Every structure is written in structure tokens, then in C-alpha cells.
Amino acid sequence: MKNVVNKAGRMLVLFSALLITACNSKNNQDEPAQDRWKIGIALSDENTSDRWRLDGANMKALLEGLDFDVDLQYVNRDIAKQRTQIEAMMNEGCKVIVITAVDGNSLGDVLAKAKGKGITIIAYDRLLMNTPDVDYYITFDNLGVGEQQGEYIRKALKLESAEPTTYTIEFFTGPESDNNVNFYFQGAMSMLQPYLDSGKLTVPSGQKTMQECGIADWSITNAKNRMSQLINEYYFTGSMPDAILCSNDAVAQGVIQALDEKGGTDGKYPVITGQDAEKASVRYIIAPTPSQSMTVFKDIRTSARAVVTLIGSIKGNSQASIQFGTPYHNGVINVKTYACETTVVDASNWKEVLIDSGYYLASDFTDEK
Ligand code: BGC
Fold first, then answer.
1. 77 lines ligand 1 (CB under 6 A)
2. Which of 275, 295, 296, 303 should be mutated for ligand 1, with most atoms under 8 A from CB?
3. How many independent structural domains does the chain possess?
4. Are residues 112 and 166 in the same domain?
5. Which domain holds residue 111?
6. 3-class DSSP string for 147-187
7. In whole angstroms, what is the distance from residue 297 CA to residue 306 CA?
8. What tens-digit pLDDT sequence spans the chain (369 residues)?
9. Residue 95 shares a structural domain with residue 193
10. Whether residue 308 is found in the same domain as residue 265
């Protein structure tokens, strides 16, 4: 499976290069106004995770470089505003609308209208649920993200060893309105459930369902509040879990803030996971006393390129095409899906993955190492 994804990733880079070359040579001729396409990019949150600002900027720059007009909008997790915004994009003549939904279930009727106007809908990162009116899904291997987090905890605590030691764990994930959370949670649980069953791992709070562990709005503050509450109610003074599964970096940051406030970490933090390779979390990971243990890096340059390549092929550029992988089912239809691969990052490989690849500058972290 991973090999398929890797191969697809390499093909995509090749096709992107072809697309850019093809479109650049076309740019020299004067494109008739009616051939210029406007693309709407409706993103959910600019504030919960840094990645969304980068995602938007990346896609806009690539599309504008290929002579598309772009309407990029954020709604700060406001469902009603996102609906209005997408309607506005339809009315201003967008041919394609790329959507990261605040709530994947809330846009059905708006998408039906868009379909009626012949607009192509691309779900970005989060699937649009329970609607026949979504054409494509560009995302990451969401189940794989959860599996990588669960696997990291399994290895870090050496859960497979025959030693009789038992360990404690707490779970923190995202809101149910984000379909990705099902995959993140399920993927992590698939790695850890055997140890919960055998008693090698225990959950002092007893909170093990996605609903109980879901952090509303993926908010740092909400994660911090829940962690403080768990410590107060279920842990002796100065004690804490051996591991905390956090589905993303924002949630991990909130959890770490709560641990720091309660004191008692004594220079040693639990095994804490994350996702997105946000700068703040990378700093936690590479600090002399690391608080976060790992993050799952999703190279959003690749997903942005996939969107742009796809839009090129929709516009009829025969050299730009995408090799779709296993489709995701959205409750109504199987949606053509391209899922980019993800990489585990910790203190051992952060430079190679994040700096050498040009994703961040070394100077972003000069105080740390
Ligand atoms: C994305 C994550 C992000 C989270 C919060 C999820 O849908 O897949 O990358 O951390 O939303 O913004």
C-alpha cells in the first residue's frame, strides 16, 4: 500500500512539472478572457493549526502562477459563514471550488446547487460527507496518521516486551464534525487496543471513546482544560500518565501547557504524539527537555500540488493527470481519492525531514540546537 502511495507521489511530482511547463509556455500567448478560470478555495480555520495558512497560500500561489484567478477564503470555523462563502464563489463564476469543511455534513444543499451549475467540487484534507455532489478528494493517508501515532507509543513504552510492567495512557482527539477524526482515532486504537485488552495499558479516566476524548474545535485551550481536569480528578499530586495520544499538534500543545501548569513533570514528560509538524511542536520535540515526543509530518506542498495538477487536468491539460488510489466512501458514494503519504518526525530525524527538504529554515529553530 505504502509503495503504491510512494509511486503515486513520484508520478504526481512529474505530472506537476509537466503541468507547470505546459502552462508556462501557454502563458506567453495572450489567453482570451473567457479561457481564464476562477477557482474558489474555501478553507475552514486559519487559527486552529498553522498548516491552513500555509495550505491556502501554497495553493493560491501555484494556481496564480498558472494564470488562474483565485478567491481564497477562511471562515474561522463558522459553519454558516462557510455556506454563504461557497454560494458567493458559485455566483462569481468559479469553475472549481476546493473545500475544507468546518463540518463535513453541513454543506449538502449548497453542493447540490454548485453541481447544478456544473462546478467541480474538490474536498481538501477533510471529506465532504453524505452527499453525491463531491467529485474528488485530495488528502493524506488519514488512517496511517493514527497508526503511526499508536505505533510510536507502542514502541516507546516497549509494550511488546514480556515485562510485567503496566502503563497508563489518556486519549485526546478532534471533533466528530471532522471526518478525519474517525480515521485518526481508529488508526491509533488499532495499534493500542491489544494492550488495553491485556491490561498492559490502562486508562485512569476510563475515557476511551472518540466522543469522550474529542476536543471541540481542535482547540489548544479546550485540550488544556480537559488535561487539567483529568489530572485533578484521576491522578495523584505530581503524577501523570505514561503516554498521551494526541491526534494533532494543537491538542498536544494544550496538553503540555496543562502538564507544565500543574508542575510535577520533574523534567520528564509522558510519551506525547502529534500531527502537522507545527513549528511550536517541533520546538517542543527538539528542546533539551523534550515535552512532545513526535509529530506526523504531512507535506502540504505535495497536497497543494495534487490539487493544482488535478485542476489542470479538469481544465483539459492532457499532460496533467493524477493516479487515484483507494476511494473513500462518504456515506453515499465512493469519492475518487488521492492520499499523500505521511512521515513520523521526532528528535532523531527532524532536520533531515523538515530542514533538508526545505519545508522550514534551520534559522526557525536556531535557539533550540
Ligand atoms: C487536519 C489536521 C489538523 C486538524 C485541525 C484536521 O482535519 O487533518 O491536519 O491538525 O484538522 O486543524
1. no
2. 275
3. 2
4. no
5. 7-134+300-341
6. HHHHHHHHHHCCCCCCCCCCEEEEEEECCCCCCHHHHHHHH
7. 17
8. 333 333 344 344 433 443 443 333 344 345 566 689 999 999 998 887 889 999 999 999 999 999 999 999 999 999 999 999 999 999 999 999 999 999 999 999 999 999 999 999 999 999 999 999 999 999 999 999 999 999 999 999 999 998 889 999 999 999 999 999 999 999 999 999 999 999 999 999 999 999 999 999 999 999 999 999 999 999 988 789 999 999 999 999 999 999 999 876 677 899 999 999 999 999 999 999 999 999 999 999 999 999 999 999 999 877 778 899 999 999 999 999 999 999 999 999 999 999 999 999 999 998 644
9. no
10. no
Q: In this structure, what are the phi and psi dihedrals at residue 194, rounded to the nearest 5 degrees?
A: -55, -35
Atom of ligand 1 nearest to the CA of 49: 12
Residues 210 and 280 in one domain: yes
The C-alpha cell 482515532 sits at 185
Per-residue DSSP letter, 214: B
Task: Report the CATH number that the domain containing residue 61 is assigned in CATH.
Answer: 3.40.50.2300
Residue nearest to atom 6 of ligand 1 (CA): 180
Residue 347 belongs to some domain of the structure: no
* Residue 355 included in any domain: no
User: Is the Cβ atom of 275 under 6 angstroms away from ligand 1?
Assistant: yes
Kindly state whether residues 185 and 269 are assigned to the same domain: yes
Which ligand 1 atom sits nearest the alpha carbon of residue 100? 7
Q: How many CA atoms lie within 13 A of 150 on its CB side?
A: 23
The minimum-distance atom of ligand 1 relative to the CA of 45 is 12
> What is the number of other CB atoms lying within 10 angstroms of the CB of residue 14?
12
The pTM score is 0.90
Query: Measured from the CB, is residue 303 less than 6 Å from ligand 1?
Result: no
Q: Does ligand 1 lie within 6 Å of residue 248's CB atom?
A: yes
Helix (H, G, I), strand (E, B) or coil at 168: strand
